[in-house]
Amino acid sequence: MLRKGKKDTKPKSILEEEQMQSPFRTIIQHLCENKVAMGSAIIFIVIFLMCFILPIWMKQDLNFQDPTQKNIAPGFSFLSVPKELKNNAKEIEAGPTFGIGIDNDGVVYEWGTLTDRLKQIPADMGKVVDIAVGQDHVLAMNEEGELFTWGYNRMNLNRIPSEVQGKKVKSIAAGYQVSIVVLEDGSLVTWGNENAVDIVASKAKDENVKLVRTNISTGLALTEDGRLIPLAKRETAFDAVPDEIQGRIQDFAMTDKTVFALLDDGTLASWGGNDYNIQKIPEGVDGHVVSISAGRNHVTALLDDGTVASWGGNNNKQCKVPSGVKNIQRVSSRYYQNYAIDEDGNVTTWGLKGYLFGTDNMGRSVALRMLKGGQMTMTVGFVSVIISLIIGIIVGGIAGYYAGKVDILLMRVAEVVGSLPFIPLALILSALIGNKVSEVGRIIMIMVILGILSWPGVAYMVRAQVLAERQKEFVTAAKALGVRERNIIFRHIVPNVMTIIIVNATLSFATCMLTESGLSFLGFGVSEPIPSWGNMLNDCRSSEVISQFWWRWIFPSIALALCTISINLFGDGLRKAVDPKSSER
Fold it and tell me: One GO biological process from the UniProt record (predicted)?
């Protein structure tokens, strides 16, 4: 009680509280005094709001896959350029999860999520003047034209071919497990995993090649006379170079599905795919481009006024150029990272910094999938509880009010339904139906079956409460007034036992969530690509994942445990608030 702005700390008996406030307020007061229950309620509400509100802004394509981003540990170091390089940079190249840069003194720097082999930078390289970065290896050249490589060392990728040694090098490039060198005479030398990337050096035979650019599947060569030569053995969409631009190309860039060519008048030509409407060049860009670079699904252009423009896919904010970027002399975009170096050597970065909870084996963000998975798991649990409550209240109310033969019949039906095991039944139905229903249909089936098989417990509880209430005076008065029996049951008796029903519903909600997660974990519930906490754990059953990729199972497990435990603790606290003597029994 509050009196004149001060809290009345004098304890009051139950009789005094009932005289001063309603039963509902008494329940709320007792519940608020239970710190465990209130803390659990706050935890569950936070998880619930995160799962249902954050996906509105943090959108995710359920079919998204990216092999270059798979099994990445949690962290935000992809763009953490060392302070020694940040104001003295000459060139920076990005890998899928890391960056490599050289300063004006020829010193090499690394940052981001690096493998052990990538950390082994060769000693005594001298002054490095050029670098090229592949999926998980680096190729570097010093001022004397000597080549160095480190990182992935299979398929002879770590061995410089004899054809290159002792010869002058014009430019270098690196792709997915492949290294490419353009010699002074314009010929190409490639080595590495020929099965990983479709690049054939003989396609540019007898051509005076200036430079080579690659994406994750193939590459193109630009000749000194401004022509593009496709290097793929098989025909691809990149081969369709417009005839009218051959001989006018100054520079070019490749995304996964599109090629952009910079012509001699500063305009851009493009061909290939048009995902993310990438071929729509922003206003004010065409005709003012100085150089161009590209990542997996976006393009970055350096303009003649020293500013930068990016467009295309923006799922990792790779097109969100920071305000105030000016006097830029060099831009580099690879994968989902961007680097801009101004005339003083200062570095500006934007794009993918890392992942809060890492990525899974498909390159998908674990954090985003946890949000969608929690949404699915809680939706299944909530709908199942609603179905079980509706059936349980109807059956229990009728059985408790009419008693006698009606009660016996309905309770025998409840015992039969209660004896049916849910998980074996769901496994059988899933095996019989298989792929005959859509994924949405499978989810609806799980919710309906779980709700239908969960109502007997609710019915027993409602029946017991109605049996006790039906003998009270307000029921007798309602009968005397001629109120219909169905109205007496559902408008007068059931509302009086609703608090007990709510307590049971909170506990049943946690049980339904665990059941759905268990079913998905066994592979018979919600299936890919739709996430749930259960099928996220299903992908982590191997010892390799448990030991090496711990983030894939630790975070979903914690979320599921926090959610279910908090619901149970809140339900237990609510039960004690409704019936304080229950803890004594």
Answer: transmembrane transport
